[in-house]
């Protein structure tokens, strides 16, 4: 089986901008053994409910929820959510908002940019009727098989992840 990686740089990052609202995530204890899995649960659960990506960052050792500043999204952010072990966490919007610069980013904003670009890319690929994906995070495959041997069809597939390239640019390696 052959594997190839082709890297496509994203050339229009200077044309992208986005504003995000930050929320304190209140009720999680970093020393709790479920802390990281609870953060991941919040991200996955809210992304699914809002049908839009959310992520978290840490500032001054406090977790913050990051949500795109669009009324149709922020109006649906719940006041609270129950995570593992029945812990109830609250989301409190803070006054600070965040405007992303897709060219001049730092480590904390890079994570946000990668998350949101990946979500948008995934959304667009899922709209393509010529592709199918067995599960979230899995490879995409062509609907038409590349080859059929007996009753087995072999489909070409690919993974795509938004990645920081060595020069500091962002790109799409297709594997």
Question: Nearest-angstrom radius of gyration?
Answer: 19 Å
Q: What series of H and E elements makes up the topology?
A: EEHEEHEEHEEEEEEE
Distance between the termini: 13 Å
Average pLDDT metric: 89
The SS-based structural class is alpha+beta
Tally of strands: 13
Order of strands across the main sheet: 3-4-2-6-5
Which segments are poorly predicted (pLDDT under 50) over 5 or more consecutive residues? none
Shape: globular
How much of the sequence lies in strands comes to 35-45%
What can be said about the biggest beta sheet? Answer: 5 strands, antiparallel
Number of helices: 3
Helix content: 10-25%
Descriptive overview:
The longest helix has 21 residues, at 107-127. The strands form four sheets. A five-stranded antiparallel β-sheet has the order 3-4-2-6-5, sandwiched between helices. A hairpin with a 2-residue loop joins strand 9 (147-149) and strand 10. The chain is α+β, with helices and mostly antiparallel strands and 175 residues long. The mean pLDDT is 89. The protein has three helices and 13 strands.
Question: Brief description of this entry?
Answer:
The chain is of the alpha+beta class and about 180 residues long. Helix content is about 25%, strand content about 35%.
């Amino acid at each position: 089986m052959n594997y190839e990686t082709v890297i496509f740089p994203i050339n229009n990052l200077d044309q992208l901008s986005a504003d995000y609202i930050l929320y304190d995530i209140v009720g999680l204890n970093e020393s709790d053994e479920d802390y990281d899995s609870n953060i991941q649960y919040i991200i996955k659960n809210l992304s699914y409910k809002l049908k839009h990506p959310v992520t978290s960052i840490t500032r001054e050792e406090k977790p913050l929820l990051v949500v795109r500043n669009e009324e149709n999204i922020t109006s649906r952010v719940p006041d609270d959510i129950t995570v593992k072990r029945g812990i109830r966490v609250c989301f409190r919007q803070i006054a600070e908002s965040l405007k992303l610069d897709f060219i001049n980013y730092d480590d904390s904003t890079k994570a946000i940019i990668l998350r949101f670009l990946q979500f948008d890319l995934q959304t667009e690929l899922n709209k393509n009727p010529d592709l199918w994906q067995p599960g979230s995070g899995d490879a995409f495959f062509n609907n038409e098989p590349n080859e059929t041997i007996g009753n087995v069809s072999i489909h070409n597939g690919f993974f795509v992840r938004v990645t920081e390239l060595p020069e500091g640019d962002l790109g799409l390696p297709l594997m």
